[in-house]
């Protein structure tokens, strides 16, 4: 709920700043969407700090957390510095890559368990 409040606050503040002429449309878009990348990285960091009893669950959580942190940082960085078309494609690519790595790791753990 806190992140939702922060996102709404940032969006409304940026909309007001854009209306007053302090920021342009490009800065508004970059800040509001880039904030989502920071949120993804933060949740990935929180995921790394949770505890699971099972070693397999801890390993899966570690991979999921790190891929989420890295993809969130890449997403936010692209939205801050890259041209908008590159930020869109690269940001989506970073999030999808993080998801694919996590799912791939979990599936590989499952296939290793079947072999034994």
Strand content: under 5%
Helix-residue proportion:
over 70%
Roughly how many Å apart are the termini?
43 Å
Number of strands: 0
Which regions are unreliable across 5 or more consecutive residues at pLDDT < 50?
Answer: none
Arithmetic mean pLDDT: 88
Provide the gyration radius in Å: 18 Å
Order of helices and strands: HHHH
| Main β-sheet description | none
**Net shape:** elongated
Structural class: mainly alpha
Count of domain modules: 1
Instruction: Figure out the total of helices.
Output: 4
Describe this entry's structure for a reader.
The structure is a single chain. This protein is mostly helical. The protein has one domain. The chain has 4 helices and no strands. The protein has helices at residues 2-20, 25-48, 55-81, 84-115.
Task: Please describe the topology of this protein.
Layout: H1 2-20, H2 25-48, H3 55-81, H4 84-115
Helix pairs in contact: 1-2, 2-3, 3-4
Which key features would you list for this structure?
single chain, 116 residues, mainly alpha, 4 helices, 88% helix, 0% strand, elongated
Compact description:
Helices cover 88% and strands 0% of the residues. With 116 residues, the chain is mainly alpha-helical.
């Amino acid at each position: 709920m806190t992140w939702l409040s922060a996102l709404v606050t940032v969006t409304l503040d940026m909309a007001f700043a854009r209306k007053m002429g302090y920021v342009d449309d490009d800065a508004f878009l970059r800040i509001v969407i880039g904030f989502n990348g920071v949120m993804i990285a933060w949740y990935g960091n929180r995921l790394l700090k949770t505890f699971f009893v099972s070693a397999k669950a801890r390993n899966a959580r570690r991979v999921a957390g790190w891929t989420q942190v890295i993809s969130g940082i890449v997403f936010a960085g692209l939205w801050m510095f890259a041209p908008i078309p590159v930020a869109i494609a690269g940001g989506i690519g970073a999030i999808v890559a993080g998801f694919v790595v996590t799912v791939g790791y979990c599936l590989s753990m499952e296939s290793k368990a079947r072999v034994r």
